[in-house]
Amino acid sequence: MFEVLVTLCALEGGDCRDMLVPGHEAATMEACEAGLSAAAAPALPGLEAKGAPFCAASGPGLSVEEVAPGVFVHTGAIAEPDSENGGDTSNLAFVIGTDSVAAIDSGSSRAMGEDLWRAIRARTGLPVSHVILTHMHPDHVFGASVLAEAGADVAGSHRLARAMADRAESYLTRFRQEIGPGFLGSQIPAVDAEISDSVEIDLGGRRLWLATWPEAHTPTDLTAADSLSGLLFAGDLVFDRHAPVIDGSLRGWQSVLAALSKMSFSGVVPGHGAARLGWPDGAEPLRRYLDVLAGDTRAALDIGLRLSSATAAVAASEAGNWELFELNNPRNATVAYAELEWE
Ligand SMILES: [Zn+2]
After folding, report:
1. Which residues fall inside 5 Å of ion ligand 1, going by CB?
2. What is the pLDDT of residue 312?
3. Residue 132 has pLDDT above 90, yes or no
4. Ligand 1: centre distance to CA 136 (Å)
5. What count of other Cβ atoms lies within 10 Å of the Cβ of residue 314?
6. CA of 215 to the centre of ligand 1 (A)
7. CA of 304 to the centre of ligand 1 (A)
8. pTM summary value
9. pLDDT band at 211 (very low <50, low <70, confident <90, very high)
């Protein structure tokens, strides 16, 4: 397959990257070039096109595994985003119906969104009708604009647009620093479909049930469930192996997990870790961690332990169960202290 690329360069600094113009794929070089006149360089703030769009053999796209018929998952590294992993640190999925495709989360950068698009195109020519964002975190949202340029509606919590706008500057600055030139062209996506309760999306032959939740991992959490496979796409409401991050409410997360656990799914695709786990047992380590964190924090508060001493002690028994624990657990302890202090 062949695709259209265009070289875009930063107005400041001069870094350049050949970026995908999605939606102009063709079976042959000749057919691709015949369609070039319809391909326009994406308008990206701070970048300018160097030369006209051109055709090239399609890149390989993200590696994915088919965890259920028509359900593909890419697993990111259990790591913080950096220039080496290119921000490939979270799980992304796409679900193929008989009419259209929905992607669930989109990666840390435009480059990842381009590789997600390539992975979809390698498996189906159906339109991508939706890109569903499970929450506001930058490792899940920065690839979405690529799919939106190709016609997909960006769907997310009714709180998502505001939450991303409030954090845009810090997300952009941090990921630009951590990922480096590979982040070029990434931007906060516009949210086309704001979901305040739940909604169903019909992909043909299967429906995705999207549901928003009270503040838990973040204030913007949304899950998707597939009617055909019975799978739950939990976003970061479920972490596996990767130490959880609380950027919302500890008690809220505990109660959302309790509510989800009562619901029947054939399995879960977590936001970090394995491509697919059993349900509800796949969330058991996370439930245990949150319970230990809450219990230890209450005990520390009872004996008047100061936060500075508590961050090393709280949930220390969980250290061996998680990667990135030393990084994330002290932050979680700080959140837990602030939240449980006034119970
Ligand atoms: Zn997250």
Report:
1. 137, 236
2. 86
3. yes
4. 7
5. 28
6. 12
7. 31
8. 0.97
9. very high
